Amino acid sequence: MKGWMEGFQASIDYIEQNLPEELNIEDISKKAALSPFYYQRIFGALCGMTVGEYIRARRMTMAAQELACSDNKVIDIALKYGYDSPDSFAKAFQRFHGITPAQAREPGANLRSFAPLHIRITLEGGNMLDYKIVDKAPFTVVGIKKRFSSETSYKEVPEFWDEWKSDMKGLKGMFGVCSDMDGKTFDYWIADLYLPWEDIPEGCETYQIPGGLWALFPCRGSLPDSMQKVNTQIWSEWLPSLQGYTLAGNYSLECYLTNSEDPVTYICIPLNKV
Prior knowledge:
This protein is an alpha+beta fold. It has two domains: about 1-105, Homeodomain-like (Arc Repressor Mutant, subunit A); about 130-274, Regulatory factor, effector binding domain (Multidrug-efflux Transporter 1 Regulator Bmrr, Chain A, Alpha-Beta Barrel). Helices cover about 40% and strands about 25% of the residues.
């Protein structure tokens, strides 16, 4: 656990050391020895915000300090912290601080400060998290997919499900599949198990899920609350204490077994055995 948390903290330290530079998720996630997709999922669970939101908040904090304490031109500060023009910088600055860059230079100006993150594990009593590790053969799903930004997916994926419910396209919605994750974007599928003897519904495609080891986490209770709670526990409690396995692949699954007598949703994470 100590080594994993140290790696994650090293990634945050890397962000802090390079705030004025161009930052990309591939370089950041390497510091934590994670794929860009998993890094962003874990960051969101641990920190309550996206990586991009954190970087913008820290840059706005540093920009305000520089405005208040130096005579550097606004355009130079804007360019330093990744903004192409004074106008775009001024709009972002006002959204964050509630005042303009010019007002930030006035004596007694009220500015907001977002402190650097420090990752710590605090033990407050044991929390039970059920899971099992299984070996699954490859299988194929059939469904509809849409490309999402990792920055906005938490809001947009549920909207995708709402759109699907108005026209189910012959699908039951057994799976939610994240695939082809490059750190910035990914495909999200609403899908069913593909049965070769059945026709593929109009507008749908097939996608093969590789075989291998999976950690299955049951989420019982109303959605999305039960899934969000388990998801947070996976990344903040289960992963830091995981031994003998590493995260695998650039895909993950949600499995919805709502037709059973005991409706349950599973979060499914692919693993490699060390």
